[in-house]
Amino acid sequence: MTHQREAAIIERLEAVGSVTVDELSRLLDVSGTTIRRDLERLELDARLRRVHGGATVARRPETPTTPELDADTREKEAIARATVALIADGEVVLLDIGITTLRIARHLRGRAVTVITNSLAVLDALRDDDAVSLVLLGGIVGSKPRTLVGPLTEEGLAQVRADIAVISSTGVKTDGAVVTDLTQEASIKVRMRQAADRAILVANTSKFPGSGSYRVASLADFETVVTTPTVDAEALAAAEQAGVRIVRV
User: Fold this and answer.
1) What is the pLDDT of residues 184-201, one digit of tens each?
2) Where's the HTH deoR-type domain (predicted)?
């Protein structure tokens, strides 16, 4: 059972401090894919910290970086809730990869919407929900685990038309450029935005200016930007003057 595996993972972490996917797979007699899903859920609940190939214990409260991590999680959750409120029942939603978009997917459970995505994490979040119509784009596994990219993904996007595309990024520059550091995913983000009637950018404080060298859009290409009150970026002011709706949560 999922909760039994999660309890066993946390118990092992508390005993040894760090674990690998292979180790947990052998210990619990399940596939590495199942373990990675468990680790992702536990990280979203702030019960551990994922690292390459496994996980370590979550940072303790006395750790100086903990307040920032907690704030980052709170911001992404608030952005997810606000974004879901912008989606009406019956709409078709293109959902990008990312932690915030995964949280959005979870809040869409039970809603009469169609979700089209290239995220295997979103697939896991919605695959057993009878209310959501779920469409997974084809493709090859991307540079970021649990994503699908490549010509097949782009071909699939060329065949769909959505009401809304929800896009994430790794940075928003002062000139309004929306960028990513994931080369394979860059073109997918562009095509997602182009395949929708309107596009929403989700970006918390850490994305201003963030990082990344691959430009996927300008802020002016989005109908709405959902962000946080602490962001006081010149780029946002210019976008708002250009007619972009800025939602601060």
Assistant:
1) 889 999 999 999 999 999
2) 2-57
Structure tokens of 107? Answer: 């809040």
Q: Are residues 24 and 141 in the same domain?
A: no
* Domain containing residue 190: CATH number: 3.40.50.1360
15-69, pLDDT tens digit by residue? 777 889 998 998 898 999 899 989 988 888 888 888 888 898 876 554 444 444 4
Verify that 24 and 142 share a domain, yes or no: no
3-state secondary structure the chain: CHHHHHHHHHHHHHHHCEEEHHHHHHHHCCCHHHHHHHHHHHHHCCCEEEECCEEEECCCCCCCCHHHHHHHHHHHHHHHHHHHCCCCCCCEEEECCCHHHHHHHHHCCCCCCEEEECEHHHHHHHCCCCCCEEEECCCEECCCCCEEECHHHHHHHHCCCEEEEEECCCEECCCCEEEECCHHHHHHHHHHHHCEEEEEEECCHHHCCCCCCEEEEEHHHCCEEEECCCCCCHHHHHHHHCCCEEEEC
Question: What's 11's domain CATH number?
Answer: 1.10.10.10
- The per-residue pLDDT for range 92-112, each reduced to its tens digit, is 999 999 889 999 999 999 999
Q: What is the crossing angle of helices 32-44 and 21-28, to 10°?
A: 110
Q: Are residues 132 and 228 in the same domain?
A: yes
Selected residue with higher pLDDT from 152 and 72: 152
Its domain, for residue 122, covers 71-248
